[in-house]
Automatic annotation (TrEMBL), chains A, B:
Name under which the protein is recorded: FAD-binding oxidoreductase
GO molecular function, one term: alkylglycerone-phosphate synthase activity
GO biological process: lipid biosynthetic process
PROSITE patterns from the UniProt entry: FAD_PCMH
Gene3D superfamilies tied to this protein: 3.30.300.330, 3.30.465.10, 3.30.70.3450, Vanillyl-alcohol Oxidase, Chain A, domain 4
Phylogenetic lineage: Bacteria, Bacillati, Actinomycetota, Actinomycetes, Kitasatosporales
Cofactor(s) demanded: FAD
Alphabetic keyword roster: FAD, Flavoprotein
PANTHER family linked: ALKYLDIHYDROXYACETONEPHOSPHATE SYNTHASE, PEROXISOMAL
Origin superkingdom: Bacteria
Site (Important for enzyme activity): R309
Binding site for substrate: R388
Species assigned in the record: Streptomyces malaysiense
Amino acid sequence: MDMLWNGWGDPAKAAPLPDSVTGLLRDLLGVKPRSTPALALDDLDLPAPTAAPAALAALAEAVGGTGHVRTDAESRVRHTRGKSTPDLLRIRAGDVSDVPQAVVLPATHDEVLAVLRACAEHALAAVPFGGGTSVVGGLAPERGAFVALDLRRMDGLLDLDPVSRTAVLQPGLRAPEAEALLAEQGFTLGHFPQSFEWASIGGFAAARSSGQASAGYGRFDEMVLGLTLATPRGTVETGRAPRSAAGPDLRQLILGSEGAFGVITAVTVRVRPLPETKVYEGWRFASFEAGAAALRVLAQDGPRPTVLRLSDETETLIGLASPDKIGAGLDRSDAGCLAVTGYEGTPEETAYRRERAAAVLTAHGGTPLGTEPGERWAHGRFSAPYLRDALLDVGAFAETLETAAFWSRIPELYAAVRSALTDTLTAAGTPPLVMCHISHVYENGASLYFTVVSAQGEDPVAHWTPAKHAANEAILAAGGTISHHHGVGTDHRDWYVRETGELAVEALRAVKRRLDPDGLLNPGVLLPTD
Amino acid sequence: MDMLWNGWGDPAKAAPLPDSVTGLLRDLLGVKPRSTPALALDDLDLPAPTAAPAALAALAEAVGGTGHVRTDAESRVRHTRGKSTPDLLRIRAGDVSDVPQAVVLPATHDEVLAVLRACAEHALAAVPFGGGTSVVGGLAPERGAFVALDLRRMDGLLDLDPVSRTAVLQPGLRAPEAEALLAEQGFTLGHFPQSFEWASIGGFAAARSSGQASAGYGRFDEMVLGLTLATPRGTVETGRAPRSAAGPDLRQLILGSEGAFGVITAVTVRVRPLPETKVYEGWRFASFEAGAAALRVLAQDGPRPTVLRLSDETETLIGLASPDKIGAGLDRSDAGCLAVTGYEGTPEETAYRRERAAAVLTAHGGTPLGTEPGERWAHGRFSAPYLRDALLDVGAFAETLETAAFWSRIPELYAAVRSALTDTLTAAGTPPLVMCHISHVYENGASLYFTVVSAQGEDPVAHWTPAKHAANEAILAAGGTISHHHGVGTDHRDWYVRETGELAVEALRAVKRRLDPDGLLNPGVLLPTD
């Protein structure tokens, strides 16, 4: 099944907004219904491909036949950009300027190498495409004609070593299928980002994804033990041991490279036994500050829950954690902040952690709310992107952004980003609702994930851009990183360069030039073009 | 205090071998006393420095005066090579061919930058020097005149953030002093490699050190949250958050770069509260295989001890873990394999882990030996290098090497390296004693650390080289990494290049060329010169 071309996920799961939400949007944010009717896929006016027939023939030869090179309008539209709110708004408005020339579907590592050779010969850029879920402009290269290198045919579990607890996965494997294949042998990755239903293994690695159970299972980049990279200059293979002192860790150079250095064609990951027990529960804290302090104690001194998250006052009040109950808490001004803790593992070990963590949370001002809020969160954990579609449909604007920093900087970072978003959108005449949660904790710091909802304004993309840029500036100024788990893409690139520094960026560009001398891989994604 | 110039550590801690060991060496290995008398430092015939007076003047200007540029014989000898057995044998034989032109002692990051500029202007290579404990030829560049860039004046604790639990340490800070400064504020790094008494923070980072408590505190590269690097092209600063999705992890590109990309001038590390309780105990397993299986269960399913190690049958029999008792176990052919487990933390949490781990170890065939073997190990944990000096003094050869792999490859790797060492040295007429332990465990694999003792042969360095190369070949063939925690240096470089692959090495050389266009930093260390 393909994802909705102009929205998120499975069309069958789309749900209209409850009346309570529509009322809230109108009364609180001044959201007005959109007057422009929705475009159908057939209405889009696609530019004809400019790639020469010889180029298409070379691509077909690389992938074993014309059946694996698609130039039909639907395929091209489905590989246009990713799933950020500006991406959806642009395609809904009929803007298909970032459409690929063709969609190429290699089946093997060697076919990927052959596709890259064909691209080099015919001056085509190549954009690796997994689940297509980028929210940072990672699928729209900066210049020139390009092909989407769709990895969906490379969707196998190549090896599972139950002694070492490692698995070799192909990049086009989507997360649910990866979990299903591993579950057959009693294992799990434990990687459940909000994009879970659609995102791919290769994309997780390329963009340093982090899942909702990262407190227990770690980030995706922490799960990766080995990578195979197909580049225009040949193959890089990494990972002979879990850890090594043999030079820089090349895995960590490929992770986060977002297709700019090569195409990830295999990922060796650590796997863990399927948990026998899963339990999620809710806690209430008087304030975001008090809740954050409690999360910090668990992150630093343990015991560490598998899932650990905390919504701020606004997100708690709105009830974003459970879309079917949005607005239900609005009459409770003493709502405080909702935290969700989850425990997965063996019954005994889970019980120990849960009991000890409960003591810590209670000692730090938490009130237990039982399992109901936790189960509600778990039930709705992948539904926020569907909610966004419904919000866009009724004329609201909704987008998210995220960052991370060391613990001592979190209060200032939180305040600075909220202010930047609120001030910019208020000045533009569309005061927003800004919500935030902590969903990834470390011994030394945490992430902050913001959700913004407002009216769309006349030109919703142009309306959002200054607010997004103000948030980026606030993140840099307050000592945060420009992305904790969405990545850089083209949207964050200029701030990424400032965060990283010119000299380090030069070093990364030297790597790119060595592996991709013609600059055909994802031009302008992650690193500036020349 | 300076380290012994021709051996290890504090001369006052040197101890002669017990008679039992001398007898063992003679009877078992045919070790004969050395006939050549030991050279004194004054006996060494140092080549006069060839660096022009203008070069020395430029260096002096870079570091604020001639007092911080040393050209005396003793300073130069003390910065000649590191502390591998071949290094010691060479200097004991009067071979000072790798002596630096001068020792330069910068006090600040900016002075390091100035030293690099002076080196570039005067065509001098620069070798960063911390504790001088490299055992892989990391301090002897491959070509040309060089200065030792000794970082001992940069030995401060620059910042401690008790909320984020981070500390900023200067690179020349030695581990005991770092621990003392952190302990004043209630914190510890928890990094205790065998080189602890002498090694420096910068060296730990540059060479990806791993300490004896890595099961609990992690490897040094896992403790590092930020790095400042002084390069000939300027400064690289990394680490705004514990984790980020903003591109490749540049910390992991600098960690393990062994001075080839730049000089590490500051390291931000995670710190932990000083443990209230420390307890170490011994366990016996019937075989190395059975013990390794038990360690694997703890590493994968927990609970994780803070220290977790296992000696093979030979190492257990010889009793290397406690040098004062070497040979005492030789009459017990049922000795099996000794494991040491250690627990550090709060009393309650330590007790929980200890009790649960004991149940796991017992279930997997372990016999508890109480705390005495654990305390003995802890008491002697930094003494092996002193023992090596004593062995070299009496005409024995002693050296160590190490590797790591995924769990399922450990048995083959163990057998392959043992055979390579035993076969090569036996064929050369000096059958060795080969001992091994696992001292670092991960969910997905472990390290293997080998100790080799034999007679020296006529030319002991030439005698060892084929055995070392055979071990390197065995490691590559059996799927291990060329080093788990000693690093690459010049000794492992050619195998490192094969392990890493030409294309990845090209990418790293592109980074080096960008940061160090004149190739003045550690030429030939880690990466081949042009």
